[in-house]
Amino acid sequence: MTLHQPLHHPDPAACGCDSAAGLVPVDQAIARGLALVSRLQVVEMLPLGAATGRVLAQDIAAPVALPLFDNAAMDGYALRLSDLTGQGPWCLPVAGRICAGGAPAALPKGAALRILTGAPVPLGADAVIAQENVTRLGDMISISARPQGGQHIRRCGEDLALGAPLLPAGRILGAKEAAALAGAGVGHVPVIRRLRVAILCSGSELVEPGTPLALGQIWDANHAMLAAALDQRWITRIAFPACADNPEALCDALARASAQADVILTTGGVSVGDEDHMARVIRRLGGRIEVMNLAMKPGKPLSIGQVNGALWLGLPGNPVAAFVTWHSVGQVLAGHVAGLAETGPVKRLAALGASLRHKPGRCEYRPARILGHDARGVLQVICLEGAGSHRIGQLAQADALVLIPSDEEEMTRGDLVEVLPL
Ligand SMILES: Nc1nc2c(c(=O)[nH]1)N[C@H]1C(S)=C(S)[C@@H](COP(=O)(O)OP(=O)(O)OC[C@H]3O[C@@H](n4cnc5c(N)ncnc54)[C@H](O)[C@@H]3O)O[C@H]1N2
Ligand code: MOO
Description:
Elements: H1 26-36, E1 43-47, E2 60-61, E3 71-72, E4 76-79, E5 90-98, E6 112-115, E7 127-130, E8 134-137, E9 140-143, E10 153-154, E11 165-167, H2 175-183, E12 188-192, E13 195-201, E14 206-207, E15 218-219, H3 222-229, E16 235-239, H4 247-260, E17 263-267, H5 278-284, E18 288-291, E19 296-297, E20 303-307, E21 310-315, H6 319-338, E22 348-352, E23 356-357, E24 363-373, E25 379-383, H7 392-395, E26 400-404, E27 410-411, E28 416-421
Parallel strand pairs: 5-6, 13-16, 13-17, 14-15, 17-21, 19-24, 22-25
Antiparallel strand pairs: 1-12, 2-11, 3-10, 4-6, 4-7, 5-9, 8-9, 18-20, 20-21, 22-28, 23-27, 24-25, 24-26, 26-28
Helix pairs in contact: 1-6, 4-5
The structure holds ligand LQZAQKY5 and molybdate ion.
Residues 201, 203, 205-206, 218, 220-222, 267-273, 276, 298, 300-301, 316-319, 321, 389 line the site of ligand LQZAQKY5.
Keywords: Magnesium, Metal-binding, Molybdenum, Molybdenum cofactor biosynthesis, Transferase
GO cellular component, one term: cytosol
Cofactor: Mg(2+)
């Protein structure tokens, strides 16, 4: 197997793109976009149940030790090892019973206590023996093997010490975070206010899906795609109707969007055609454009700027290009503004299942399918044939994007590539 090392390029950009060609490498575009924005500062205190999917506003330290007290890990009997003198088997009277939720008891000398999982270990007990490992004879138990000290006892603080880091700021609150907070008794959580994201698709040809088309018109695929991508609890979407390629109408819509949103996603109108008005309109509104022309394919016309304090991401109109630029660049910037600690797609390494050719100069995100693991456990991925930035049908067949480094001309089966699972 040939091991290409796409992660180690002389160029600082991880994708290997060369800025000399006048195109901005993806990493630089992200860095320049990040420099334009600041993170949201407004914090809301929410009941834990209402905080699901929101972004934690500050580090949370454990307000208690977990477990809260020594408790039984098994249904069985609590005993004192020093009561098992001489050679076994040993017989002990069962002096009582402790359930989960019961107050801690004391273990009488020379006796065992019936104990159930989660119940507080009685004072004086130093082991719990599982009921499968004793013989119960009326009010007595017989034990043939000496338990280990501390056996089946979950110690106070062994999971988390009092004051230990529980969750970091910037974490999206999912199921495991909810369990940790609830288990530590946290009833209200500080979260960052929702990020307001406006979606504004442009194109005189666009018609809402479900309505009839005139000749030459097409259904708007980008709005639904972005709405689905933004369907997250930390985001409030602000939907604008598709706007014709008309500078006045675009100016009006963008002005309204910038008054309401932290981030404005537009699609279309960022290339060089006569009806590509987006950049001019942003400037007319007093906005600033920081990045145009990225060294990526698809997505070269992606534009990043600012208008009236809102971050503007001008995604290309071609739907696959809009999808790829949102996933590779847009969500990193939006996530940063929203306060997320970890932003951007999770990348994995995979081996190509078939060779491919690539035109050097721009890194390429190519729709692909993950084939599973080979005999050595290496993930296998295969690029879909004939990628094109208009091919929404093909995109729906993909479950990953393969990141082909800028300078590669030909890659062969077995070469390692970075993969963005979708
Ligand atoms: N002379 C050049 N022409 C083009 C270049 C170039 O460098 N020189 N770049 C091409 C690339 S790459 C892309 S990507 C597109 C981007 O153009 P725009 O962002 O201005 O997008 P439009 O021209 O408005 O639309 C492009 C294409 O996508 C279709 N589209 C647009 N919006 C939607 C939507 N919401 N749902 C479905 N399809 C949509 C639109 O009908 C066009 O077919 O420019 C190339 N041209
Ligand atoms: O690069 Mo364009 O963004 O779709 O082909």
